[in-house]
């Protein structure tokens, strides 16, 4: 089994793992999910791993692919020389800029781009960054996008995704309103293929796992927008289904608030660029 084999598996879409192609509009619609979120144990555990392994240092130049609302970029900026965050969503980037500005961080830049389509050669980004990260990012979704990630790194790359995730309310809503799906035999298909491609390239990645647990608290209005938006990225919801979702959420409210416990296991893959 060669690299082409794993690339082919990676690019085979399935209903469980894929949102609707990750358009800018779809991510713009999710920006409220991240408003007000402060660094949690998931973020700090990854920062600790990057620091202990000496991938993140005071002299680091960091590129964060799919930076979203800038939570990781802000943490990087407090420990690195410079940070560049890229994302497909204009609204996510506005949120990120506001977040770092509120913390008076001056060494962060944000750029709107579609990682999969952007001409990195024209940007002269070859080996430009000492650390390149893609944390929960849909931008790394093929051999080609992975190779672009490797090409812009002069030292290290770091990629992570959930391999297990359990959301007390979301899981029930998915069971009720999404079509049945087959179990993901790979745990996380993208990570499985990524690891094997890197291995076959003789980059010999390391892998570690982070256990996470957190509680989110939302008002009824916030919860309705959150869950309808997320399910709507997986399937086209009818007005009747949206009403049923609101009724279910209402049944879970306590004093006008919706509490959801989220637990999971995150796999972190990291490796040295070939030039190190």
Helix fraction, binned, reads: 25-40%
Estimate the global geometry from the Cα principal axes.
globular
CATH superfamily: Vaccinia Virus protein VP39
What radius of gyration results from the CA coordinates? 19 Å
Order of helices and strands: HHHHEHEHEEHEHHEHHE
Number of strands: 7
Using the 3D structure, state the CATH architecture: 3-Layer(aba) Sandwich
Instruction: Give the CATH class.
Output: Alpha Beta
Provide the domain count: 1
In which order are the strands of the major sheet placed?
3-2-1-4-5-7-6
**Distance between the terminal alpha carbons, to the nearest Å?**
27 Å
Biggest sheet character: 7 strands, mixed
Count of helices?
11
Concise account of the structure shown:
The protein is α/β, with parallel strands linked by helices. It has helices at residues 3-11, 24-28, 31-34, 41-52, 71-77, 90-102, 143-151, 170-177, 189-200, 220-232, 239-251, and strands at 61-65, 82-87, 108-112, 129-135, 153-167, 206-219, 257-272.
General description of the model:
- The chain is α/β, with parallel strands linked by helices and 276 residues long.
- The chain has one domain: Vaccinia Virus protein VP39 (Rossmann fold, 3-Layer(aba) Sandwich).
- The chain has 11 helices and 7 strands.
- The protein has a 7-stranded mixed beta sheet with strand order 3-2-1-4-5-7-6.
- Helix 1 runs antiparallel to helix 9 and helix 10 packs across helix 11.
- It is globular and about 55 Å long.
- The protein starts with a helix and ends with a strand.
């Amino acid at each position: 089994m060669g690299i082409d084999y794993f690339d082919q598996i990676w690019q085979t879409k399935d209903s469980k793992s894929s949102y609707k192609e990750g358009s800018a509009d779809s991510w713009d619609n999710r920006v409220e999910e991240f408003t007000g979120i402060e660094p949690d144990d998931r973020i700090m555990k990854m920062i600790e791993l990057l620091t202990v392994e000496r991938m993140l240092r005071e002299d680091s130049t960091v590129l964060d692919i799919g930076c979203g609302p800038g939570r990781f970029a802000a943490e990087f900026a407090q420990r690195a020389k410079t940070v560049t965050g890229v994302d497909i969503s204009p609204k996510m980037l506005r949120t990120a800029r506001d977040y770092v500005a509120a913390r008076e961080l001056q060494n962060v830049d944000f750029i709107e781009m579609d990682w999969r389509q952007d001409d990195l050669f024209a940007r002269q980004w070859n080996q430009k960054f000492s650390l390149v990260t893609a944390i929960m990012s849909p931008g790394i979704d093929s051999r080609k996008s992975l190779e672009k990630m490797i090409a812009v790194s002069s030292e290290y790359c770091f990629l992570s995704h959930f391999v297990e995730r359990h959301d007390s309310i979301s899981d029930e809503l998915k069971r009720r309103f999404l079509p049945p799906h087959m179990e993901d035999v790979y745990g996380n298909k993208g990570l499985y293929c990524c690891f094997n491609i890197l291995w076959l390239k003789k980059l010999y990645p390391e892998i570690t796992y982070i256990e996470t647990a957190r509680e989110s608290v939302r008002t009824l209005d916030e919860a309705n927008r959150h869950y309808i938006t997320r399910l709507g990225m997986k399937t086209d919801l009818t007005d009747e289904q949206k009403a049923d979702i609101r009724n279910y959420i209402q049944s879970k409210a306590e004093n006008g608030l919706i509490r959801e416990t989220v637990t999971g296991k995150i796999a972190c893959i990291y490796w040295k660029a070939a030039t190190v």
